[in-house]
Write a structure and sequence with these properties.
The chain is an alpha+beta fold and 135 residues long. The chain is 48% helix and 13% strand. It binds zinc ion.
């Protein structure tokens, strides 16, 4: 029984879809489906990493290509307000590096997943990299 009118249903479905394709959700769903369990955004750790695997001593950070300067094809250099954007992005990059150093200093192993890697049709190379990393 579908109690929603078709237009409500499609609005709901598009909302679900847009949430589910967020890079972090792609990674969460992938790893959860493989049986991994994790803590989200642990406040006690530097930078509140996206996924924390306490018993494995591992952290997975999912980063947007534009905001964290991946330099791939989906993170083009902005054509206007370049000073503003580059200052903002450079700030993110510095913070990423600082958090990564702090995590490693505490004995955590860190893997970064880029947004573009979650948008590929075939997630098998991402999957094998993460399963190798997590052990
Ligand atoms: Zn990228």
């Amino acid at each position: 029984m579908d109690r929603l009118a078709p237009e409500q249903r499609s609005a709901l479905m598009s909302r679900i879809r847009s949430t589910d394709t967020k890079p972090e959700f792609v990674v969460r769903r992938l790893l959860h489906g493989l049986g991994y369990r994790y803590v989200l955004h642990d406040r006690r750790l530097p930078g509140r990493p996206d996924l924390v695997f306490p018993s494995r001593g591992c952290v997975v950070q999912v980063q947007g290509c534009f905001w964290h300067a991946h330099g791939c094809s989906i993170s083009p250099t902005p054509k206007s307000n370049t000073t503003y954007w580059s200052a903002k992005i450079q700030g993110n990059v510095r913070r990423d590096a600082r958090n990564a150093r702090a995590l490693r200093a505490l004995g955590w192993r860190l893997a970064v997943v880029w947004e573009c890697q979650t948008k590929q049709r075939d997630l098998s190379s991402l999957t094998s990299r993460l399963t190798k990393f997590l052990g």
